[in-house]
Amino acid sequence: MINIIIIALIYCAGIVSLLSLLETRDWVPDSNFMYVSTVFPTNSTMTMLLLIDNYDSFTYNLYQYFCELGAQVVVKRNDELTLHEIERLAPERLVISPGPCTPDEAGISLAAIRHFADKLPILGVCLGHQAMGQAFGARVVRARQVMHGKTSTIAHSNTGVFAGLAQPLTVTRYHSLIIDAASLPDCFEITAWSEHEGKRDEIMGIRHRSLPLEGVQFHPESILSQQGHQLLDNFLKI
């Protein structure tokens, strides 16, 4: 019995260590890393989702969450493929991951958003969200406060990926840049926002008014974010 307890404790410690690694921005898996889902969907019509990795450890949290939701996920780094190669993969949905850089340094991300915007649903997360705004002409600027590994509560419109989520919503933020609200084109609506001194502050979510494009500034795939699975599942249903 003691041996069984010791083995169980070692297993749990390993899981905690892995989660700790995945929540650390300084750790990025190499190209041989594979995060295997513990859930194996039997649905033969799984959504094929392409996840563009902007060299960020959170990419594999997104991978895990989408696998658990029943999607077939292909991960490619932002300098690993061309627009033509994306077309050959024929994804049904596209996700642009977080990353440590700016949209200008995010490889194929900007070009992919512009090219596929009217062809398939796209979700941008953190850097991907900023890239979505910039791809349509918005400016990406310094945030009022650097938010690295901090949680905050945000308000939202209860539409798109935010449908049915708690109000307010607790989310995890890792960013020093934001989309400038004044420069966001009219084709987008603001779907989530932070508050400062009782007033609307920074953009936390955007949604295109006529195309299936959604962006979130925070990390729904973080273990500290509330209802992250439901938000990503909402995207799969768009």
Automatic annotation (TrEMBL):
The keyword Cell membrane does not apply. Residues 50-236 form the Glutamine amidotransferase domain. This is Para-aminobenzoate synthase glutamine amidotransferase component II. GO terms for cellular component: cytosol. The lineage of its organism: Bacteria, Pseudomonadati, Pseudomonadota, Gammaproteobacteria, Enterobacterales. One of its GO terms (molecular function) is 4-amino-4-deoxychorismate synthase activity. Keywords: Glutamine amidotransferase. InterPro entries: Anth_synth/Amidotransfase, Class_I_gatase-like, GATASE, TrpG/PapA_dom. GO terms for biological process: L-tryptophan biosynthetic process; tetrahydrofolate biosynthetic process. It comes from Pectobacterium parmentieri.
